[in-house]
Each structure stands twice: as C-alpha cells, then as structure tokens.
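In this section we turn from sequence analysis to structure. A common task in structural bioinformatics is to predict how a protein folds when a small molecule is present, because the ligand can shape the pocket around it. The inputs are simple: the amino acid sequence and a SMILES string for the ligand, here flavin-adenine dinucleotide. Study the lines below before reading on.
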Amino acid sequence: MSVDVIDRVRAFARTELVDRQAYLDSFADAPLPLYRRFHEAGLANWWLPAEEGGTGLGLEDSVDVVSELSYGDAGAAFTLFISVLGTSMVSLYGSAGLHARYLKPMIDGGTFCATVGSEQAAGSELAKITTTAVRSGDDLVINGDKYFSTNADFADFLVVIARSTDNPSGVAAVVVPRDTPGVRIVKRWEMNGLRSSATYQVSFENCRVPADHALRGPGLRVLEVGLNASRILIATTAVGVARRIRDHCMDYANTKTLRDAPLTGNAVFAAKLGQMEMQIEVMRTQCRSAAREFDAILSRPDAADEFLRRGTLKSALAAKMFCGQTGWQIASVGSELFGGLGYTHDDAIGKLVRDMRYVAIVEGGDDVLRDLVFSRYVVPVSKRT
Ligand SMILES: Cc1cc2nc3c(=O)[nH]c(=O)nc-3n(C[C@H](O)[C@H](O)[C@H](O)COP(=O)(O)OP(=O)(O)OC[C@H]3O[C@@H](n4cnc5c(N)ncnc54)[C@H](O)[C@@H]3O)c2cc1C
C-alpha cells in the first residue's frame, strides 16, 4: 500500500510540478485545478484513517510522500499536507458526529481544512490570544482577528483557537464551517516563497456554531498534539527541497567547466555535494524517526489521552529545528554554487532558497522551539535524553 501511494505521488510530482516552476512561483490565485487533479488521482488527504475512507498511510510513510511532493514544489506540498494539523485534532478530540460531518467528506471531495491560531499581538505567546468563543444558549459565538491561516479561503472548515470560559483550560479548539456567516477573509498574504500555497488573514464577527463543535480537551494542548504531525511534515519539506537542490547542482556542474574539466570532477565541489548528501540522509532519518514515534502513540487504544499527557514531542521539535537549520545551510551552499547566476531570477535556485526559508519559521521559529525544548525537556531532569 505505502509503496503504491508513494509511487503515485512521485508520478504526480514529475508530471504536474517538477517542470512548472515558473508557474508555481507566480503569485497567481492558488492553483486549485492542480490540487483537484491530486484528488482525482485518489491522493488527497492520504493520511486520513481507513475508517474515514483514507489510505490509512502512517506519518512515517507520509515523510516520503511529502519529500516527493516538495521535490516538485514546496508550496504545493504545504498546501496538500497542512490539513493534517486540523484533521489530527478533529480525529483525536472530535465527536463521532464531527468525524462524519467534517472528516469523511475530505476523502470524497478532496477538500481542505485550515487551522486558525496565530494573532498579530500575541505572536508565539498563544496563551495571550484575544479571539473569544462565548457560550450563547446551545451555541458558541466567535469574535476576533487572526493573522495567518493557510488554505482558509477554500477550506471546508476551520479549526479556530479561541479563549473560552466553556473550556476549563480557558482556551478551546472549535470547528467552524468556512461558510459560517461572519467568517471574513481580510487578505491573502504575499509570501516570499511557497507561492503556490495561499495564506490568509481572517476575521470572525459573531460567528455562531453549535457548542458541540468545540473539541474535547484543553485547546492549547490539543493544538500542540496536532502540531506534532504538521511540524514533522514541515521539516520533511526541507528533505524534498534539499534533494532538488542537490540534483540541480549536479546538472549545473555537469555543464560548467573549471580549469578545462567539468565542475563535477572538482574536489571542492565533490566535498560540498558529499556533505549535502549526508545532511539529506540525517534529515530524512530524523523525520521518519519522529513520525514513527507519532504513529506508535496513535496506534494505542488510549492515543488521545496519551498525546494530551505528552504534548509536544521532543522528536518532532528536533526534526523541525534540525531540518530548518540544515536545509538553510544546504540552500546557502547550493545558491553559491551557481555564481552570479545563483542571485538572479533566471535560475531555479532562487526559488528553492526562498521556499526553504519557511521551514525554520512557520509553526514556531527556532527561538520559540529552543525555548520549548528547554522548558519541557531540559529543565525536568527525567525528560533529558
Ligand atoms: C507561510 C505561512 C503560513 C502560515 N500558516 C499558518 C496557519 O495555517 N495557521 C496559523 O495559525 N498560523 C500560520 N502561520 C503563522 C506562523 O506559524 C507564525 O508566523 C510563526 O509561528 C511565527 O510566529 P509569529 O509570527 O507570531 O512570530 P513570533 O514567534 O512572535 O516571533 C517574533 C520575534 O520574537 C522572537 N521570539 C518569539 N518567542 C521567543 C522566545 N520564546 N524566545 C526568544 N525570542 C522569541 C522571535 O525569534 C522573533 O524574532 C503561517 C505563517 C507563514 C509565514
């Protein structure tokens, strides 16, 4: 099963992404027909459990799926996997009714979900968010301004993180259908990279949803659980982009001569590419290892509670930080290899560098994640490796 899905994803990436870099790098509308063809190939939301009609592919195999997609285009990969953040939360902490209403159609319709957490003033201090979900009869009424949310405009539903006295922790994760009156897309951000993806500023004005659309559990902890899956796959994007940089460097070096010989025969070039290959191997190994830990917890009968107990996994934080930093080194070495051409829009390396940058920023910059590793895994002596 996994080999079949990975082969089909690789074929999709080769036919739809690899040779369309200029188009995918344009700031046109999000290329929804492209994403529809991914669904028609039977691949959309591939990670959803078999009970929901998905392929049931685990996160460990999803690492190779995302590596293939991001070899083709990181923005397309991000668009196609980031729903995993919301679906993980709904799958683990949503009622059977929410599963039937929101998760099942994602297979039949190839639809998206978006997570709406970040706010301008709160920044990474999510405990300071000001969006509210206030009880009114049998409903929750949501009000607030959110800063970034990928796929929000064309998603079927949003998982909104909001302050709520209904939740004992003070924060709830609430499922909001995209077509709820009062959900407004303020603008689409113009990003430096990942330009085939679409991230929006969103506001909520008196959005009314049934109170049973709140997920079980403390909202910020539930978000942390979902972030385990998406951070591992964001880290994996670096593997795919790095593989593409390596191949692009090899193609260039086969045609570029230095001292009357191809650059590929030069010892300095060989050392750089040897180093790159080692880094790619370690990044992939860390992503698969973190994903294996996630899959192992998910397979337990008490997965939802065990995830709440563990919160953010050290392996997932390590994958995201290591791949963000190492991917950035690879992008830097790669761009230098092309000389002046590497600083122009004429060569594809510029896009790869811009795409790589997001790995160390989205879902927690390195300063934030280092702080998290310190407080969760260094201060408590029992958690140290
Ligand atoms: C392409 C893209 C897609 C996105 N998609 C989504 C989405 O779908 N849903 C969503 O909710 N959000 C989304 N985001 C938001 C993204 O996750 C945040 O922008 C990111 O986590 C960084 O947080 P921040 O912008 O609040 O900046 P901050 O984390 O507040 O950082 C600002 C500055 O403060 C510093 N800082 C912050 N905390 C610490 C600390 N503890 N110690 C030291 N320094 C610190 C940082 O280093 C930085 O210099 C997206 C962003 C982008 C760019």
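The mean pLDDT is 96. As an exercise, try to locate the residues that line the flavin-adenine dinucleotide site and compare them with your own expectations.
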